[in-house]
Design brief:
52% of the residues lie in helices and 17% in strands. It has 755 residues and is an alpha+beta fold. It is flat, with a radius of gyration of 33 Å.
Length: 755
């Protein structure tokens, strides 16, 4: 195995060598007599601590083979300390062999350091007379013996003899209905401690790669002389190198180990290149930034493989190695190196792979909590809310039906106390569920950068309001809609440099991504200063595809013409590319936003740009609802969409073109029966009808109901899968009397009215 150390790491390496050789000498002496010691647990505590220190330091320095071996030695010593393995001759003999192998490796490092020229780095290839993999697997089988009730009193030679062809563990996860070939199947042999190590690696690798790709590389791309970001990048690459080496200490299939070795070599080379840039005090070239992006993509693919239990060699690491050789051949200062690097790591752009929902990482005093735990806590609080509503029902019943006003007041007072506690708990859990849109926004600089590279455009992204908060469930679901909008702005909206110069614009186009609060909603805008949309061309394209008739095109306003892009299959692209042009996306965007009880609108000016605005509720779980009755069925309408309620006399409702209209507060509103919209039987028409005036933030419509009941807090539960496709339904809730009521989706209801 070949290792590289920069000048900065030489001092640390020398300290590691001195301390490790001293510790191993002590370990060797203790292990030799451990079986004859009257109280071995004290000695074993000391030995475990010393080997643990060697493991930690070697991992930090990226000495993967030393880390792997010391990890297993520590595991065996810990098992002896817990009396899970007898400290007898055979077991201590195996430990002695492993300790001697460690001494041999570190002694080689010491000899290389002794001949080191001051001020230079070190490159060394360790050669072992001991079979490291055999020792590791022998110790692993020793540990397995106690778990599977296999007698541990076996000769080390017997343990080695059983290794070949014995270990065959199926993949941790397999895709349903899919059979993996032997070449693709990667077995994992994990003990309890190894599982924890793997989980730590995956968690930290995702966090580091996310910060590197979404923050540091984006900053360095716009400002290559950003010393703070460069230093942070160097530290994180160094940490990834060490963590990759530590992961190799986990017993795994040789194919995966080979992949990890190649990845470790990439990180070592990358760290070396970054070290050269730092020592030369050079700004980071674009070629190195692209190389870092590609390395992080390879790491994310590895993480996905580890989750799925399948490893596939797609040539990515080989391409990275080629790119590194190109840089070494060209030299860091060669400005023409960019093209050769891009050729080496070139691959089809797949922004869906770039866009991943990763876990939130934040600084400060915080802990990671599973979303499932938050959901369970939210459900429990929802049950408390239902109980809270029952108090008022019981109090009313005691007073009206049983004539017990004093007892009714006492129950009502108790209900108010429970109501206050419930409100505090709801506010607390909702605050825990609120997540900054920053974690979604940070995906898009990389996506726009890749689009700019592929299309040859210059595009900058300006993000505003990243600290705006939304419920985590909404955050998880707006990723795809935003991805389509940002992608379309970069591909369709922004012109080429030549077109922008001809139009008198800055050659570099700009895309704005902003979020802000408005009342009980969060507004997210995607705006660009590109070519804008031509309503006449939209009408013409819709006519050609048969979406509208000639008469509809003539009667359609420019604002209505812009909405045509939401039609399924509608696209203005002249050709299909890997980025866009297939006629799918914008209709899905509107469907997804509507399902979140949100709305979307478009403003565009030809030659100046477009702005798409999404209006989203803060949360979908707990809301204040207006309870109405339609055909003796209780329905809940979220108050966020209710402008007002009114009782309207029948003679004020006029009919135009077969539709009811109402002149109310100086404007004309369309009015429909909620029963008709939901295809329920129509009731009798009374002289005065309750009307609920709804809005989606843009338009207004009146809904006729039978009765207005009351307002109350509701915990919205999702509908079962077989009911989720019903338009106009947002979920269900349990009322104070224990009955189930449907919660309506006002935005979808208004769309049904428009049809």
């Amino acid at each position: 195995m070949r290792y590289q150390f920069t000048v900065d790491n030489i001092k640390m390496l020398q300290v590691f060598i001195v301390k490790s050789l001293e510790s191993l000498q002590n370990v060797e002496n203790e292990v030799r007599y451990i079986g004859t010691t009257t109280n071995p647990s004290t000695s074993l505590d000391n030995l475990v601590g010393q080997v643990h220190s060697i493991k930690g330091l070697s991992s930090f320095l990226g000495l993967s083979e030393i880390t792997r071996l010391s990890y297993q030695i520590e595991a065996v010593l810990a098992a002896m300390r817990e009396d899970n393995i007898q400290a007898e001759g055979e077991e201590t003999g195996l430990l002695m062999k492993a300790v001697h192998a460690l001494v041999e490796m570190i002694t080689q490092l010491s000899e290389e350091c002794a001949s080191l020229v001051h001020g230079e780095g070190l490159e060394i290839e360790l050669c072992f007379t001991h079979e490291v993999d055999g020792l590791i697997q022998a110790m692993q089988l020793l540990l397995q013996g106690r778990e599977e009730n296999i007698p541990s009193k076996r000769q080390p030679e017997q343990l080695f003899a059983q290794i070949e062809g014995q270990i065959s563990v199926p993949p941790l996860l397999m895709r349903a209905g899919e059979e993996l070939s032997a070449a693709e199947s990667i077995p994992f042999l994990l003990t309890g401690a190894a599982v924890g190590l793997m989980e730590d690696f995956l968690l930290e690798a995702e966090e580091h790669s996310s910060i590197i790709t979404e923050q540091l590389l984006i900053k360095l791309d716009s400002n290559p002389e950003d010393a703070e970001s460069f230093a942070d990048l160097f530290r994180r690459v160094h940490t990834l190198k060490g963590n990759t080496g530590l992961l190799m200490s986990v017993p795994i299939d040789e194919a995966l180990r080979s992949f990890l070795k190649d990845l470790l070599q990439i990180f070592q080379e990358l760290e070396s290149l970054l070290g050269q840039l730092r020592d030369a005090k050079m700004p980071i070239p674009s070629a190195i930034i692209n190389l870092c992006f590609a390395a992080m993509d390879a790491l994310m693919r590895l993480i996905s493989m580890l989750h799925n239990g399948v490893v596939t060699d797609d040539g990515t690491l080989e391409n990275l190695a080629t790119a590194i050789m190109n840089i070494k051949t060209c030299g860091l200062a060669d400005t023409h190196c960019q093209s050769s690097v891009m050729e080496a790591i070139a691959k089809p752009l797949d922004v869906k792979k770039v866009f991943k929902n990763t876990e939130t990482t934040s600084s400060g005093h915080s802990i990671r909590v599973s979303g499932d735990k938050l959901d369970r806590l939210m459900n429990a609080i929802g049950e408390l809310s239902i109980t809270k509503n029952m108090f008022s029902q019981i109090a009313r019943k005691l007073n009206m039906e049983h004539n017990l006003p004093q007892l009714s007041r006492e129950v009502k007072d108790a209900g108010q106390f429970v109501n206050r506690i419930s409100a505090e708990l709801e506010n607390a859990i909702m605050a825990m569920r609120m997540t900054e849109v920053r974690i979604v926004f940070q995906k898009y600089p990389r996506i726009l950068r890749d689009i700019a590279l592929q299309t040859g455009k210059k595009i900058s992204l300006v993000m505003e309001g990243e600290d705006t908060e939304l419920d985590k469930n909404i955050i998880e679901q707006i990723g795809d809609p935003l991805l389509h909008l940002v992608r379309n702005s970069g591909d369709h909206g922004i012109e080429t440099e030549e077109e922008r110069r001809a139009a008198g614009k800055d050659p570099q186009g700009t895309v704005w991504l902003r979020a802000y609060n408005r009342s009980n909603y969060v507004i997210i805008e995607v705006e660009d200063d590109g070519r804008g949309m031509n309503p006449d061309k939209l009408r013409q394209k819709a006519l050609e595809k048969g979406f509208i008739t000639q008469q509809e095109a003539l009667q359609m306003s420019d604002e209505q013409a812009l909405q045509l892009i939401f039609l399924p299959g509608f696209s203005m692209a002249k050709c299909v590319t890997e980025i866009s042009g297939r006629g799918v996306g914008m209709d899905v965007v509107r469907s997804n936003i509507t399902a979140l009880q949100g709305s979307i609108k478009i403003n565009s000016q030809l030659g100046k740009g477009s702005k798409i605005t999404m209006q989203l509720p803060l949360t979908l779980l707990v809301s204040r609802g207006l309870v109405v009755e339609v055909q003796q069925q209780a329905l809940v309408i979220p108050l966020d969409n209710v402008l007002e309620t009114a009782k309207v006399s029948a003679d004020k409702l006029l009919k135009r073109r077969g539709r009811r209209i109402l002149y109310h507060r100086g404007e004309v509103l369309g009015v429909v029966s909620l029963a008709e919209i939901l295809k329920m039987p129509s009731g009798e028409v009374s002289d005065y009808m309750p009307v609920v005036i709804l809005t989606d933030g843009q338009t207004k419509v009146g809904m006729i109901v039978d009765r207005l009941l009351n307002e109350q807090d509701v915990l919205v539960k999702p509908l079962p899968a077989y009911l989720s496709g019903i338009s106009g339904m947002g979920g269900a809730t349990i009322m104070g009397d224990g009955k189930v009521a449907l919660v309506l989706n006002p935005v979808e209801l208004m769309q049904l009215v428009a049809r």
